[in-house]
């Protein structure tokens, strides 16, 4: 009798484990929050799951804004009109693999049905980015594109296929496999560009529109930069915030900041967190506006730990300049 009881308990345990596994593997969609609604779907394994599990009855009188999240999914492709009826104003793909392109059909592209109000798209946690950024071209209200915690993302010239309505681009906590010289060059309405905690390694002025007439904020923080282009701030007439914190820049060239120093009295620049060499090239930092932040000197040893603003210009010398002294 005791053995039979043990066998029954074991069977129940096995059954519970099987049911638990099936439950965690079953695609689900859950609605949370009010009045701003987040609609989260997870564990999709096929394009057909959008029709099987997605609710499409988000009426405008009840839902003014819906944040749609798809996570932990592995798809053959995104179906046409995948989000139709959801009233999604933002879409986030988190840990989502997509293995093929959306087939051409009368149903249109994956975002058919939400183009009138979709303003933000996020790819995160190693999700597959579109084979071509033209996939997002029909989103004529798109303002924000976010890439966070991505693996080997390529910042290619294909970004210029994104809709011209785009205002903000953010890349954070990601591994960058490469960046083209004209990365965002044609996106003339950009207002904010942020690359943070990612190995950008190199930045050129040609990566931004020329002129960047609407750009107000440029952040290249913890981006593995060792130098800046001389024309960094040329033809960015409305730039008010420049963040270069946490890079490996030893020498800041005055020419890189000349337009800000001569024409932008209200600009804020953050240069701290860099291993500054306080030689003759750092003299201009002695006269920067109060709103700017700079790192303490890392070298030479006699000035280490001191801030440029507290050092006389005569002490900021280059070896070639001091050779005859």
From TrEMBL:
Taxonomy, superkingdom: Eukaryota
InterPro entries referenced in this protein's UniProt entry, alphabetically: Leu-rich_rpt, LRR_dom_sf, LRR_TM_domain-containing
Keywords linked to the UniProt accession: Leucine-rich repeat, Repeat, Signal
Signal peptide: 1-25
Cellular component, GO annotation: plasma membrane
Protein name: Putative secreted peptide
Organism: Amblyomma aureolatum
